[in-house]
């Protein structure tokens, strides 16, 4: 009974008795893509066979790989339009509701615990990597601060965006950080675009990620699903498994298991893909302080905080500011960049 009760402060996010319907038709699939590597290997085998005069047919060992290719996209999406001073069609019309009015961590303000919690905090950080003591005191539906450029609020997007399956991989994740990720996606994503949330449990052994998780997600009536790997696969392989399990969405969105999506996060991320399905998009990723849960802009970048991600030769992650050449080719400050 408890699992089926609507959650407080969810507005229309209870999602009870609401069947998901895709916004636009699925893309069709046809054809075989030319595999140049396979052709190269086949020709090499032919040459070796001819050169040595061997009688065995080495071509039998050649692997020919086939790839499914998409038909050219026929559905035309309108490009996003910037209308200064006119609130965007995907922007919330009212301030975001608090998870708990005046509660800890609302509006992503820092929540600092006193010295009495020092030992338990250190133990939780050792076990989970974050201050789970503070996290467990913060609402799973908490409000967040808006760190976007002011111009972001005035973009208007085509209503016929593609739908998404959100894939989240976790291994022995803390309860509240994992569930706050799920809650934030449901809270801040228009229902008609959120096809499903696919949780991939990469062989966790924590008790709270077993029956308790199975019971908890029942409140969303199938929107949230959990699949468990029978052995530890690692993040990337587990994400590939998530792609196989995701059946409903037209786009795959991968999120970490301890994040919170921002205000109007969906349309800017999906619009370029809706316009061209060969596009991959990456958001600006702000930082959640793992001790106080304050959300601040990521460091580095140019004067607007814009940067590209890159690795140096030590495989350390860097943020490289946009070049002058890139900026000169932009018509607005907040349009996507390469």
Automatic annotation (TrEMBL):
SUPFAM superfamilies associated with the record? Nucleotide-diphospho-sugar transferases
User: In its keyword annotation, does this UniProt entry include Disulfide bond?
Assistant: yes
Q: What is the protein name given in its UniProt record?
A: N-acetylgalactosaminyltransferase 7
Lineage start: Eukaryota, Metazoa, Chordata, Craniata, Vertebrata
Q: Which domain of life is it from?
A: Eukaryota
Record's keyword terms, sorted = Disulfide bond, Glycosyltransferase, Manganese, Metal-binding, Transferase
Q: Which InterPro entries match?
A: Glyco_trans_2-like (IPR001173), Nucleotide-diphossugar_trans (IPR029044)
Any one GO biological process: protein O-linked glycosylation
Q: Which ranges carry the Glycosyltransferase 2-like domain?
A: 165-299
User: Where is region (Disordered) located?
Assistant: 1-22
Question: Bias category Basic and acidic residues: which stretches?
Answer: 1-21
Q: Which cofactor does it need?
A: Mn(2+)
Metal-binding keyword on record: yes
Q: Which GO CC annotations does the UniProt entry carry?
A: Golgi apparatus
Pathway assignment reads: Protein modification; protein glycosylation
Q: Which organism does this record belong to? A: Phaethon lepturus (White-tailed tropicbird)
| Alphabetized Pfam families for the sequence | Glycos_transf_2 (PF00535)
Report the GO molecular function annotations.
metal ion binding; polypeptide N-acetylgalactosaminyltransferase activity
């Amino acid at each position: 009974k408890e699992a089926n009760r609507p959650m407080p402060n969810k507005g229309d996010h209870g999602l009870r008795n609401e069947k998901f319907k895709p916004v636009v038709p699925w893309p069709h699939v046809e054809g075989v893509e030319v595999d140049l590597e396979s052709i190269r290997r086949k020709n090499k085998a032919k040459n070796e066979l001819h050169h040595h005069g061997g009688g065995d047919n080495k071509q039998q060992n050649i692997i020919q790989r086939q790839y499914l290719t998409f038909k050219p996209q026929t559905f035309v999406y309108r490009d996003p339009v910037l209308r200064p001073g006119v609130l965007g069609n995907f922007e919330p019309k009212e301030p975001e509701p608090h998870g708990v009015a005046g509660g800890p961590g609302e509006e992503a303000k820092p929540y600092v615990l006193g010295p009495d919690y020092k030992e338990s905090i250190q133990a939780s950080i050792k076990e989970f990597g974050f201050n789970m003591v503070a996290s467990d005191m913060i609402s799973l539906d908490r409000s967040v601060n808006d760190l976007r450029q002011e111009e972001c609020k005035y973009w208007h997007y085509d209503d016929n965006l593609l739908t998404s399956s959100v894939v989240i991989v976790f291994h022995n994740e803390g309860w509240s950080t994992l569930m706050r990720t799920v809650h934030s996606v449901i809270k801040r994503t228009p229902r008609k675009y959120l096809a499903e949330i696919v949780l991939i449990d990469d062989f966790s052994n924590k008790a709270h990620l077993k029956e308790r998780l199975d019971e908890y997600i029942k409140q969303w009536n199938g929107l949230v699903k959990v699949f468990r790997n029978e052995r530890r696969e690692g993040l990337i392989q587990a994400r590939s498994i998530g792609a196989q399990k995701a059946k409903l969405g037209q786009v795959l969105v991968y999120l970490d298991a301890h994040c919170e999506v921002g205000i109007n996060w969906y349309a800017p991320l999906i619009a370029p893909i809706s316009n061209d399905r060969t596009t991959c998009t990456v958001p600006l990723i702000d930082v959640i302080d793992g001790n106080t849960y304050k959300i601040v802009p990521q460091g580095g970048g140019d004067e607007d905080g814009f940067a590209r991600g890159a690795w140096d030769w030590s495989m350390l992650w860097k943020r490289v500011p946009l070049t002058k050449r890139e900026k000169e080719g932009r018509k607005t400050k907040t349009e996507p960049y390469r």
